[in-house]
Amino acid sequence: MISREQCAARDAADPLARLRSLFAMERADAGGLIYLDGNSLGALPKATPGRLREVAEAEWGEGLIRSWNSAGWISLSQRIADKIAGLIGALPGEVVVADSTSINLYKILHAALAARNINRVGILSERTNFPTDVYIADTLAKQHGLELVLADTAEIADRIDDRVAIVMLTHVNYRTGYMHDMHAITRRARTAGALVVWDLSHSAGAVPVDLHRAEADFAVGCGYKYLNGGPGAPAFAWAHSEHIAWMTDTEWRQPLSGWLGHAAPFAFSSEYQPAWGMARFVCGTPPVLSMAALECGVDTVLAAEAVGGIQAIREKSVALTQLFIDLVEQRCAGHQLTLASPRAAAERGSQVSFAHPTHGYEIMQALIARGVIGDFRAPDILRFGFTPLYTRFTDAWDAVDRLRAVLESGEWRDARFSVRAAVT
Ligand SMILES: Cc1ncc(COP(=O)(O)O)c(C=O)c1O
Question: Using CA atoms, how far apart are residues 38 and 44, in angstroms rounded to an integer?
Answer without folding.
Answer: 10
